[in-house]
Every structure is written in structure tokens, then in C-alpha cells.
């Protein structure tokens, strides 16, 4: 997924939820500015109805922004953002109509400033392209209003200068909001990459230490059973039936150990660790070891999801089925790894909003994620295309 489509709430859902406080502050600020500037230029108002209507539209836009960004309604969708922008533009148009032909100064009009503040309220929830587009399109509407206005008091003033003064607050605040969204996404993604590298490096060191200390797998089989048996066979003259059966048993044991080591993946190690620490059954079915094709960020996202489900009695068990299917779009040129994470609900079942946040994190690292929470179980399907 391109970074220009990512938002703060996509890559850092917790920070996105905590940023919801910016909307009430922006709504209050917009309302205060609208009332204060209307009182300031009340002598220029020809239509009291239009002036009061403009203030009411600002109040409606602010209230909708607060409701749309509440954590209980996460995630925030682009449609909600554009509704607020349209209402804000309507407030600016209504204010323009209230003083048309009698507007002495442009800098005391609240319309452009209010639009910029409303756009700023959605900076944590919209990508920088949408924020910048909202500012440019709103400025275009405002420019048409001023460019086509007829006011004798503006004679001799260049139209371009009037337009620039009028739309400057909208453009500046929208550009600042877009810059914030772009910067926070880049900084957060970079931090996540560094954190993932550190976690994987420590995991590799831990595994290496366990391998040296436990001396498991085929090394243990060779040292503890096979080598002593071969040493004992060097001193016998005839091989008995019992010796032959013993050799066959050791060969099968060694072959089984080799097959299990080949088939084992980091996902199996994660399941074993969760069972040991959380006391919950985590079943992994990955016959093709397809989970090994995930890159560092995707492994971290899957690890976070499984660890979260296996804690705090959210589910009674976790089932992870990893399969490889042909790519539906390019049957001959690719395959898709399908990771199905599911489990029956426990004493403290997870809410769909919380599961959807983990799905958003998975989408941020290139996985196609679909979440489903029913009355009996929770299920998250992740897809990753491989060549």
C-alpha cells in the first residue's frame, strides 16, 4: 500500500484514538471565531438571516466533526471528512451572502479560516492527499465568490490580490494539516521498522541461545542414541533381530526429527511460547511453511494479533491455518498465502472495533485483511501475494 493512502489512525490506531480530542477543540475554536468576527463586522451585514445561518452551519459542522471522530465510531471514513468540509464551505458562502456588496475588508471574514480549522480537525484521520485536496477545492469555491463579486469599495485593487488574501487561511492551514499527516506517517513507519528489526534480532539471538543450551533436534538424537548404538555395534560379530529393530527405530526417529525441523517455522515457535506463557491452546497448520514468506513487518503484525487474541481470556483457543492458493488474477504468475486466524470467544470477547484496528495495522504492512466477529467466534483472514 502506498504511503500517500495511509493515515495516522491506520498505522497507529491507539494514537489515532487519542487524537480525537483535537476535533472538539477545533469545533469550539471555529464557533468562537465565527461569532466574534460576525460581531466585529456586523455593520457590514445586509442579511441577518444569512449571517445567523452561517454561524449555525459552523455549529453543525463542528458537532458533526466531533461525532464523526469519536473513538466509539472508529475508524473515521473519508466520507465523514468531506461532509464536514462541504458544510464548512456552505457556512463561508452564507457569510459571503450576508455582506455581499457591503464587505469593506476581506480579512475579517471567518469563512476561509473556519474551513481551514475544520480540515485541521481531521489531520490524524485523513491522508495528506485528501487534506490538501480539500483545501484546494474549498479555495477554488471561495475564489469564484470573490472573483465574481462586484463591490465599489474594491475598485483599483487587483482581483488576484483579493483572491489570495481571502483564500490564504484555508490554503495555509490545509497545507499544514497535510504536512502533519505526511510527516507523522513517515516517522511512525520508520519507528515501526526499527522496532521490528530490534525485536527480530533479539528473537534470533534467543533462538540461537536456546539451540546451544538445549542441544535439541537431530544433534540430540545423534549424540544420545545413534552414536552410542553405532559404537556398540562395532564390537559385535553378528547383528541380532533386536539390533536390526533398534536400528530401524532410530532411523525412523531421526527421519521424523528432520521432517519436523524442516516443517517448523517461526509461527510454530510463537504458538509454543504462547501456550507456555498464556496457558491457551494455539494450533498452527502450515504444511508448506508458507508463513516464512512474510517479511519482518508482516510477521510483527501477525505476532501482535495472535498474542493479543491469546491474552485476557479473549478467546478460549487460537487456530492458525496457513494455506497457499493460486492467484486469482494471475493464475500462472503468482500465488497467495492465506493466513486464517480464528478462535471461539472467551470470557472477555474482543470488540469488532479493536479487531479492526489490528486489521488496519496488517493492511499498513502490505497484507489484505478481513475481520469478522460473530456471537461465537472471531476470525481474521490475512492474504499475502508471493511470486
Question: What does this entry show, briefly?
Answer:
By secondary structure, the protein is α+β, with helices and mostly antiparallel strands. The chain contains 13 helices and five strands.
Helix/strand layout:
Blueprint lengths: L7 H4 L1 H6 L3 H19 L7 H21 L9 H21 L12 H10 L7 H20 L11 H56 L3 H16 L7 H23 L2 H13 L2 E5 L10 H14 L7 E10 L8 E10 L7 H13 L3 E6 L3 E10 L1
Parallel strand pairs: 1-2
Antiparallel strand pairs: 2-3, 3-5, 4-5
List keywords for this structure.
single chain; 387 residues; alpha+beta; five-stranded mixed sheet; 13 helices; 5 strands; 61% helix
Describe the protein's architecture and organization.
There is one protein chain. The chain has 387 residues and is α+β, with helices and mostly antiparallel strands. Helices cover 61% and strands 11% of the residues. It is built from 13 helices and five strands. A five-stranded mixed β-sheet has the order 1-2-3-5-4, covered by helices on one side. A hairpin with a 3-residue loop joins strand 4 and strand 5. Helix 3 packs antiparallel against helix 4 (48-68), helix 5 (78-98) runs antiparallel to helix 6 (111-120) and helix 7 packs antiparallel against helix 8 (159-214). It is elongated and about 120 Å long.
User: How many strand elements?
Assistant: 5
End-to-end CA span:
17 Å
Mean pLDDT: 80
| Distinct helical segment count | 13
Would you list the SSEs in sequence order as H and E? HHHHHHHHHHHEHEEHEE
- Strand % is 5-15%
Low-confidence stretches: 209-217
- Approximate shape: elongated
Secondary structure class reads alpha+beta
Radius of gyration: 32 Å
Biggest sheet descriptor = 5 strands, mixed
Helix content: 55-70%
The main sheet orders its strands as: 1-2-3-5-4
Amino acid at each position: 500500500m502506498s504511503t500517500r493512502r495511509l493515515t495516522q489512525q491506520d498505522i497507529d490506531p491507539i494514537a489515532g484514538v487519542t487524537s480525537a480530542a483535537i476535533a472538539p477543540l477545533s469545533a469550539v475554536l471555529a464557533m468562537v471565531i465565527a461569532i466574534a468576527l460576525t460581531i466585529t463586522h456586523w455593520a457590514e451585514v445586509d442579511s441577518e438571516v444569512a449571517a445567523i445561518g452561517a454561524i449555525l452551519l459552523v455549529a453543525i459542522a463542528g458537532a458533526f466533526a466531533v461525532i464523526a471522530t469519536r473513538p466509539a465510531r472508529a475508524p473515521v471514513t473519508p466520507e465523514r471528512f468531506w461532509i464536514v468540509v462541504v458544510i464548512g464551505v456552505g457556512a463561508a458562502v452564507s457569510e459571503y451572502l450576508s455582506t455581499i456588496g457591503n464587505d469593506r475588508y476581506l480579512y475579517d471574514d471567518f469563512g476561509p479560516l473556519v474551513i481551514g480549522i475544520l480540515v485541521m480537525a481531521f489531520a490524524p484521520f485523513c491522508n495528506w492527499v485528501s487534506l490538501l485536496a480539500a483545501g484546494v477545492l474549498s479555495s477554488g469555491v471561495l475564489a469564484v465568490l470573490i472573483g465574481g463579486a462586484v463591490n465599489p469599495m474594491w475598485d483599483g485593487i487587483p482581483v488576484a490580490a483579493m483572491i489570495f488574501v481571502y483564500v490564504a487561511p484555508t490554503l495555509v492551514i490545509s497545507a499544514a494539516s497535510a504536512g502533519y499527516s505526511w510527516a507523522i506517517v513517515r516517522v511512525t513507519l520508520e519507528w515501526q521498522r526499527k522496532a521490528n528489526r530490534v525485536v527480530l534480532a533479539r528473537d534470533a539471538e534467543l533462538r540461537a541461545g536456546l539451540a546451544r543450551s538445549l542441544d535439541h533436534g537431530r544433534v540430540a538424537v545423534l549424540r544420545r542414541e545413534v552414536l552410542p548404538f553405532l559404537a556398540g555395534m562395532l564390537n559385535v560379530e553378528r547383528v541380532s533381530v533386536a539390533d536390526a529393530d533398534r536400528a530401524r527405530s532410530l532411523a525412523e526417529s531421526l527421519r521424523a526429527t528432520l521432517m519436523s525441523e524442516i516443517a517448523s517455522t517461526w509461527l510454530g515457535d510463537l504458538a509454543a511460547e504462547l501456550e507456555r506463557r498464556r496457558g491457551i491452546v494455539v494450533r498452527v497448520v502450515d504444511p508448506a511453511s508458507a508463513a516464512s514468506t512474510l517479511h519482518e513487518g508482516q510477521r510483527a503484525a501477525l505476532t501482535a494479533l495472535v498474542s493479543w487474541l491469546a491474552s485476557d481470556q479473549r478467546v478460549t483457543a487460537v487456530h492458525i491455518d496457513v494455506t497457499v492458493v493460486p492467484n486469482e488474477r494471475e493464475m500462472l504468475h503468482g500465488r497467495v498465502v492465506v493466513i486464517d486466524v480464528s478462535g471461539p470467544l472467551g470470557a472477555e470477547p474482543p470488540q469488532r472495533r479493536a479487531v479492526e484496528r489490528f486489521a488496519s495495522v496488517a493492511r499498513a504492512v502490505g497484507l489484505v485483511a478481513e475481520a469478522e466477529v460473530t456471537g461465537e467466534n472471531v476470525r481474521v483472514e490475512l492474504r499475502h501475494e508471493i511470486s
